[in-house]
């Protein structure tokens, strides 16, 4: 699915006074600009931040993937729902969370070490992601079982159950020598069937073919013959591309079991779908929120590693939507042209950050920049 809304999250040192440029000159001021507010986190050592940087990068990618998987589930379960009706976080559109990001201090206390916060946020989100996977598997199984039962009940004559079509009088019963075979014949082969069914093998009862039912693709016939030649007859039917229904055994008990199977699998599939939909909506809200809390920590960590201590940087969310989405790459180039010089001064000598330069996420040099799709 094509992304409807994209953001550039950019963190720049306060000393560059970036806001006026971002608001009025970047992309000719055509995009919405909001502050992406970060709390003050507890920093132990710069070494710990370097170690955390790689973990945050992986978590960011993992949670983005989790959100995308949940979106795919929601889109399949509710294909006619509008974009903003399915992308809901804490009862608001997901874009509101990005544009009005606020750290959840009641859930994630910032007086805890960053590593503790990362573990807490990621564990909750990944546990929920696992719950969605398991529920999705249960739904897929229930759906598969229902489709199989539905094919038996409502499929074409070559595959559906025939219990509600045929009657005992259509068969040769209680005979030591004769039997009846049911055959679903494609409509375009009916003429061939009438011409040849009596001679495809020995001892087929002449003119025994009874037409029992028809649908859009097949006609169902019953043919009587000697039991000794049944397998030979069935093989010949397949060679003629007719469909012998050797799977069928007439039984009132089987008919009742079929009805029970259909009703049971339909009820199970319906309940599984409702349960999955409810969980997926909760998961989207919770995992999306967790994703952006991880992203907030990542921005903070990368900003400290690039710009030094004490933390003095501002973060912004630059929104691109509709026809303006195509300007994301152009805006990136404009940002690099304007602030590319920060690549040489991104680490403060007085804090000895230069020794970490090769370890910091190089994809976002020369300043902290993240590209986010709300799919």
Layout of secondary structure:
Layout: E1 5-13, H1 19-24, E2 32-35, H2 46-77, H3 83-86, E3 88-89, E4 92-93, H4 94-99, H5 114-154, E5 178-186, H6 190-196, E6 210-214, E7 218-226, H7 230-239, E8 243-244, H8 252-307, E9 313-321, H9 328-339, H10 342-345, E10 368-374
Helix pairs in contact: 2-5, 2-8, 5-8
Overview of the molecule:
- Belongs to the V-ATPase C subunit family.
- This protein folds into two domains: 5-120 and 285-374, subunit c (vma5p) of the yeast v-atpase, domain 2; 168-250, Alpha-Beta Plaits (2-Layer Sandwich), CATH 3.30.70.
- Helix content is 47%, strand content 15%.
- It contains ten helices and ten strands.
- Helix 2 (46-77) packs antiparallel against helix 8.
- The chain starts with a strand and ends with a strand.
Count of DSSP E strands? Answer: 10
Low-confidence stretches: 345-358
Overall number of domains: 2
Helix vs. strand class? alpha+beta
| Mean pLDDT across every amino acid position | 89
Beta fraction: 15-25%
Concise account of the structure shown:
With 375 residues, the chain is an alpha+beta fold. The chain has helices at residues 19-24, 46-77, 83-86, 94-99, 114-154, 190-196, 230-239, 252-307, 328-339, 342-345; strands at residues 5-13, 32-35, 88-89, 92-93, 178-186, 210-214, 218-226, 243-244, 313-321, 368-374. The chain folds into two domains: 5-120 and 285-374, Up-down Bundle (subunit c (vma5p) of the yeast v-atpase, domain 2); 168-250, Alpha-Beta Plaits, CATH 3.30.70.100.
């Amino acid at each position: 699915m094509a992304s409807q809304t994209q953001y550039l999250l950019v963190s720049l040192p306060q000393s560059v006074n970036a806001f006026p440029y971002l608001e009025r000159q970047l992309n000719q001021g055509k995009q919405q600009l909001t502050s992406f507010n970060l709390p003050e986190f507890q920093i132990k050592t710069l070494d710990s931040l370097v170690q955390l940087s790689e973990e945050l990068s992986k978590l960011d990618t993992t949670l983005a993937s989790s959100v995308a998987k949940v979106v795919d589930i929601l889109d399949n379960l509710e294909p006619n729902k509008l974009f903003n009706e399915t992308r809901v976080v804490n009862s608001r559109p997901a874009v509101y969370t990005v544009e009005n990001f606020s750290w959840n201090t009641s859930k994630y206390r910032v007086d805890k070490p960053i590593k503790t916060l990362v573990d807490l946020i990621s564990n909750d989100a990944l546990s929920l992601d696992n719950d969605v996977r398991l529920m999705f598997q249960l739904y897929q199984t229930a759906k598969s079982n229902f489709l199989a039962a539905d094919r038996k009940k409502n499929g074409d004559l070559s595959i559906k159950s025939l219990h509600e079509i045929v009657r005992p009088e259509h068969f040769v019963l209680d005979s030591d020598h004769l039997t009846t075979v049911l055959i679903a014949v494609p409509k375009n082969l009916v003429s061939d069937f009438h011409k040849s069914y009596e001679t495809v093998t020995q001892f087929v009862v002449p003119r025994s073919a009874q037409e029992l039912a028809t649908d859009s693709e097949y006609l169902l016939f019953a043919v009587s013959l000697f039991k000794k030649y049944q397998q030979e007859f069935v093989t010949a039917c397949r060679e003629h591309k007719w469909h012998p229904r050797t799977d069928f055994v007439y039984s009132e008990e089987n008919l009742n079991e079929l009805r029970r199977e259909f009703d049971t699998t339909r009820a199970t599939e319906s309940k599984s779908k409702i349960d999955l939909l409810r969980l997926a909506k909760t998961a989207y809200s919770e995992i999306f929120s967790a994703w952006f809390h991880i992203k907030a920590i990542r921005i903070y960590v990368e900003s400290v590693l690039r710009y030094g201590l004490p933390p003095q940087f501002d973060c912004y969310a630059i929104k691109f939507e509709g026809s303006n989405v195509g300007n994301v790459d152009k805006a990136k180039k404009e940002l690099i042209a304007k602030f590319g010089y920060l690549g040489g001064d991104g680490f403060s000598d007085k804090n000895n950050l230069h020794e970490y330069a090769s370890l910091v996420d190089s994809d976002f040099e020369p300043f902290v920049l993240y590209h986010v799709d709300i799919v």
